[in-house]
Amino acid sequence: MKKIEMVDLQGQYQQIEAQVNQSVLETIAATKFINGPQVKSFQENLENYLNVKHVIPCANGTDALQIALMALGLQQGDEVITSDFTFAATVEVISLLGLTPVLVDVDPKTYNIDVSAIERVIGPKTKAIIPVHLFGQAADMEEILALAEKNNLYVVEDNAQSIGANYTFSDGTKKKTGALGHMGTTSFFPSKNLGAYGDGGAIFTNDDDLAHSLRGMVNHGMYIRYHHDVVGVNSRLDTLQAAILDIKLNYLDFYNESRKAAALKYNQRLADHPNLVTPFRKGDCDSHVFHQYTLRVLDADRDALVKHLNDNEIPCGVYYPIPLHLQKAYTSKRYKAEDFGVTMQIVNEVISLPMHTELADDQIDFITDTVKSFFG
Fold first, then answer.
1. Number of helices (H) and strands (E), helices first, in the chain?
2. How far apart are CA 84 and CA 325, in angstroms?
3. Does the predicted model carry a pTM greater than 0.85?
């Protein structure tokens, strides 16, 4: 059996090695390292894939979130609602801009932001909602969009973990996550479903005015060289990374389907175990692309299971062990423990097993056998 990796980037690279190497060498030979033609090509191809009018590439996923919020023209002290159970970048950018993060609890099945919790904290200073499509699964966007429209709020999707997922509306209409709100953002960190070989990110929107603002903001506020019309930052997607991403975009649906197939095998092997809750998925799994395969451990020591897996040379992850409202940088007197009942429970229960496009059946068998052996 091949060594088990949490994310097998080497195995994935070997499948596209010739294409990537040729593209990288051509890019280097052309010496157009900043805003080269590969950036424009990737941008247009991603627009077509997402069926969105505008993709604005940038340097990383955190920048994407920050620049998206900058484009909204919010004022210091304005409130932005987001999930308590996610990576810190989501709340980090809110605070960096002098805005007030308002953290809320999550749904116990999907771990995505709880719409009823959003509704309870909307107030006169609320200006935006950032739903995070966590672990690869779409949040309840129809309800979130309706709530935002009712209260005149912006919706900025954090799609860093779920690119390629579909959201199905009640009328049967399907749209890609990231293309549902006023803006969507993503990360091309190497371990993502669509990962670069370094940092990268992008912002998506169907709004022409927002797109215009975003294009200036990612380039020092310039539309014409040395004419700075808006306050901006230096956040550009590297041409080499765009060349690699343009190739990998052709395989994104295959990568996502491979992840779904691996998740189904995990589910079959771990089904009905009294100490495990396998990932919830809606319908035919169209809305989940399994950036992570995350279990909940019931009536047992999750951290001891982590050690048991590591002792058997199986990598695993705990995403996320500390909720944001308890992180030193983001604590606030307005947060009450009883408002985060689900989050406080699952941070002690979640464990993510290896998940990538190269997982073999014998690896899944070994991983699941090792998990079950922990419980005796």
1. 13, 14
2. 6
3. yes
